[in-house]
Amino acid sequence: MPSSGTGGDLFGAVPGPVNGLADVPGIGLGHAPARNAEGRELSSGVTVVVSPAGAVGAVDVRGGGPGTRETDLLRPSNSVQEVHAIALCGGSAFGLDAAGGVMAGLESHGVGLRVFGDAAPDLIVPIVPAAVIFDLAVGDAADRPDAACGREAVEHALEHALEQAREHALDAAGDLPGLTGQATNGCLGAGRAATAGAVKGGFGQASAVLPTSVAAGYTVAVGLVVNPVGSVVDPDTGWPWGLGAQLGDEFDRYWDDDLPDPSAGGLAALLARGLGGTKLPAPGAGGPDGGLNTTIGVIATDAPVTKAQAERLAIAAHDGLSRAVRPAHLPMDGDTFFALSTADSSGADDPADAERGRGVDQTTLAVLASTAADCVERAVVHAVLAASTMFGVPSWKDLMS
């Protein structure tokens, strides 16, 4: 395993108890595979991040080939201030159909925007922005997520949100166990058919809890689907680019499961699959198609950022992507990050006292933005190290074995 890159954070942050999206109160996470008529799991899938009580939302799109839904409403100048879920989908533009299933599932649970307020309390519209990755040539191009897939994923996410709410309540009360377990990463949901440069990609998470003396003890967490053109591996060493960003010993869990160190043969095999470990064909050899791309994800925090400040977090997230994926934001990528703030306003008797959306000072925002970038860098590594060989695409682990 690597001998360097373990240690601390510029601002003293440490990973959350779960080291994932579950560390942010008010968030739930669910995955589902696409299925055929008989219920058999197919190659693509959907990942849903829910905030049943609503969240301040924003987005930033940097790639040249995005596939998105409902991103315009997230502009700070636009009226809607509340987001209920983010759908991360496989299946290219076809996968956007899954967002309709997410909406239907939320509506059935009474989660959504009350468009006419108290005049018609049962008329709700769930706000569900979405983004897709292009994965049609991995597995079967006909294996696309649909509304049923989105419905299944949001049901899992809502169950997870309830479970996490109970655990956060125990944690806040000082009762054990509170938050437990490790974030699950790998070939899940929208990451089932993801490819990270020349190796198998997937879904990855990371979180950071800031000191109260620096940023009021706020938590920042990231969940993303890693499917870029660029390489996630240093072609000189074979190690993932973002390995040095780890907090403490968070990546040791993979070596505890007998993850190999890079081998000369493994590195040669990786470079033979794509130019410099990317999806661009290596000279004189066929290689992965450079058109199968895009990294999409969600940054979540309990800091009471405004909609414009949430956008700043989404912008900063791309800095972490550009450190963990080289190059990033290519014309063939559709790199998109959403940001959600779930700051609790439930105890406010007067709307003027509401915490959510109140905003943070510039110094705190700068720390949160930097932390968001670091979490993205770390989450990319988690996705790559946890990935399994699937659909003919070898994982980093298997290539290096």
From TrEMBL:
One Gene Ontology MF term: aminopeptidase activity
Annotated InterPro entries: ArgJ-like_dom_sf (IPR016117), Peptidase_S58_DmpA (IPR005321)
Pfam families cross-referenced by the UniProt entry: Peptidase_S58
Superkingdom of source: Bacteria
Protein family: Belongs to the peptidase S58 family.
Protein name per Swiss-Prot or TrEMBL: L-aminopeptidase/D-esterase
